[in-house]
Amino acid sequence: MQDWQRSVIYQIYPKSFHSHAGNPTGDLLGIVAKLDYLHWLGVDCLWITPFLRSPQRDNGYDISDYYAIDPSYGSMADCELLIAEADKRGIKLMLDIVVNHTSIEHVWFQQARSSLDNPYRDFYIWRDQPNNWESKFGGSAWEYEAQTGQYYLHLFDHTQADLNWDNPQVRAEVFKMMQFWRDKGVGGFRLDVINLISKPEDFPEDDSDGRRFYTDGPNVHAYLQQMHREVFEGYDLINVGEMSSTSLEHCIRYSNPQSKELSMTFNFHHLKVDYPNLQKWVRADFDFLQLKRILSDWQTGMQAGGGWNALFWCNHDQPRVVSRFGHEGEFRELSAKMLGTALHFLQGTPFVYQGEELGMTNPGFESIEHYRDVETLNIFRLKREAGSSDADNMAAIMQKSRDNGRTPMHWDATPNAGFSVAEPWIGVPANAAQINVARQLDDPDSVLHHYRTLIALRRSEPLITDGLYRQLLPEHPQVWAYLREGDAERLLVVNNFYSTPCAIELPASVISESTRQRTLISNYPDATPRTRQLMLRPYESFVVHLIDP
Ligand code: TEU
Asked: 13: CA distance to ligand 1 center in Å?
């Protein structure tokens, strides 16, 4: 095992983390100011979502200059200071690289759109006629460019034009830019939708939205191997690829060290368990059995194939996990701790998204005026045009919008939750005075202290990294129980995902009267020695280390 395989990564959405300047949006010096907190929490690495120059139509995922810091976040000197200050605390910084597409304000696109024979024309993907593929943000994936009379491809917003990776000059420019950041001292990269970079040559029509043709496309592995040779080889970097609608087979290839591509992969299958028939924009409960099955299949599959999972419940594109798979009310703290435990004892590298360590909830914004996200606003408009009622649309948006995870970090009970002096760019949830860092730092039973313990356990308990995953009680409708097995010892991880108490019976091979046990973590204070028969209380969760005599 490599050292980074024992690490925990913390994700920062800088627009909503902390504003040092007191502005409506966060900045890089705001992150510097909170490094001692992150060091106390014990994380090894920070993934910071894009802070490079951008018109901010998709909050930085639309980059117009890969070599400049967006002025709203500060300067290059601030960025260098952040890298150096993080390094002093033993924390690496992972840069978010968005190279499936650029902003249409990028100079490459400005050149490309100007004439058919411009040297940059072939940096993007142009067609005389669009096919029927759909943008992930709604509507056609093609936009007409009147000046030259062709359509360009955009898998996301029409201001995010897809780069043509089959052009070797594009790849050379991307690798040069990544070398620049590597040489500045970043500790790794998070690669945005990197499995979408290789499109088929013929752009076939689809009876669906087109994703099956461009997902994990024809040359994607070859391009990542080239990136590995040009940028990663010989350097100590952690590289994680964001894989949209991918497969286990491909993720094994992306992340098995022998393929020389990436360190690990994010996939989203476990976060579609509340998308009935893969429809995101419908309000729906989550399917617990499906959640367990998907996570278990990825554990055993990646383990068997020598791949490595990035583990996560939350990020800047997802609703808050407590609101989603836990409980927002009286069981908020118990369920937040349970969800943390359930995830952190899996094999892989856990990511903690800002505020998750506090058990932050969805904000519950009821009116579309409170939303800022380009995807949410596009969908609201398209659904309204298609005749669906505003009430239905808002019910889905309140549950699913990406803005649920993008509200300001709750630092303390002062105005704007201590995030900024000026009114924040997006609203602060009403519960910020109850759920915040200052309060939880003082409370050893808080969700925050629970996460700190989870992070520390990964360092001290090798089985969390190495142990074989084995699911127990796969058909149980409310409990996710699993083992992480070593030669003569194992971890037993038990999680009740619901507020209803329930009884379980574990297999005789797991635990007997003579088994020696040591509780590693639990979310009820009165944890007793465990037996085969157990009564689980609401959202009860515990981990015991077991050794047979
Ligand atoms: O997201 C890629 C992605 O496919 C999603 O998670 C996306 O939010 C979802 O499909 C919408 O329904 C990445 C970034 O994380 C996201 O913030 C960007 O908007 C997107 O790429 C485009 O760069």
From this structure: 14
Residue of minimum CA distance from atom 14 in ligand 1 = 192
In the residue annotation, 505 being an active-site residue is answered as: no
Burial of 92 (0-12, 13-18, 19+ CB in 10 A): buried
Q: Of 154, 224, 169, which Cα lies nearest the Cα of 194?
A: 224
| Atom in ligand 1 nearest the alpha carbon of residue 136 | 10
Question: Is 192 a pocket residue for ligand 1 (Cβ < 6 Å)?
Answer: yes
Q: At what angle do helices 332-344 and 447-460 cross, to 10 degrees?
A: 20
Identified catalytic residue from 242, 317, 357, 403: 242
* Tens digit of each residue's pLDDT, the chain (549 residues): 778 899 999 999 999 999 999 999 999 999 999 999 999 999 999 999 999 999 999 999 999 999 999 999 999 999 999 999 999 999 999 999 999 999 999 999 999 999 999 999 999 999 999 999 999 999 999 999 999 999 999 999 999 999 999 999 999 999 999 999 999 999 999 999 999 999 999 999 999 999 999 999 999 999 999 999 999 999 999 999 999 999 999 999 999 999 999 999 999 999 999 999 999 999 999 999 999 999 999 999 999 999 999 999 999 999 999 999 999 999 999 999 999 999 999 999 999 999 999 999 999 999 999 999 999 999 999 999 999 999 999 999 999 999 999 999 999 999 999 999 999 999 999 999 999 999 999 999 999 999 999 999 999 999 999 999 999 999 999 999 999 999 989 999 999 999 999 999 999 999 988 999 999 999 998 767 899 999 999 999 999 999 988
261 catalytic? Reply is: no
Which sign does the torsion angle of CA 161, 165, 171, 175 carry? positive
